[in-house]
Amino acid sequence: MKGTILTAKDSAEIANSNSMVNAGVGSAMAKYGKANQLYYKMIDSLSKIIFKHPYEDSAGLSYGTEWVGTPNMGLRRPNFVVIHHTANNSCEETLNYFATPGGREASAHYVICKDGTVHHMLNDLLRSHHAGDSKWGNNTDLNSSSIGIELDNNGYQPFTEAQMNSLTTLLERLKTTYKIPAANFIGHGDVAPARKADPSVQFDWKALSEKGFGLWYDDTTNVEVPQNFDYLMGLRIIGYDISSPASALTAFKRHFMNENSTIINAEVRKVIYMVYRKFE
Q: pTM of the predicted model, to two decimals?
């Protein structure tokens, strides 16, 4: 899926917004000085790639003898938000993990602690390593088109009120700034159903959808599901990777029914059908 293009004005507004989020982080600079130095080193390395003209090519293309650049450009806009839980026991543990180079090189744009503190670890317009091997609809590289938000939670705890308040405030800013559709606020378990189960069943997707982040289904009381409705195709149209049917079903039920199971019955079919109808 192609990213939406930002204009120069958009880019300036986003830069200003990002700077406001990062205000007051002076104390953290000292504690994570080495990690921050590596951050700017990576930025410098990436900027050199951007400045490269397309002179080196292994495909044998015939370029013009004179390079002609276009000034009509902007930065690509993220079009999804993927929500995670950290599966760690503290916010400090997650920050240290993301600030350490090497290993799995995992990262996220934001980490939200239990007390509601928000850590903006990576500029929104840079590619974070948060989704891994993922798929949503025809998008097979969520890292390149999404913002990753990690919530400090070990996977078994309720999410705190302060944490959820900070999350909704952040989501509102992201939705407004990048014009992200409501349907594109999803979970890590949704985009990697065979590998991940976050955020857990403790996460209140219904409450989030009522604030405009993510979709939800209407009342199913009097719903009649067509006999020929294929629930797996319904999951596929919603966005799930159905290469592992049981994993896709479990991910859907975790998100929309707050349970982890592969049981399919009349009520589950109703819920899948009602969510599917949102995508017709």
A: 0.87
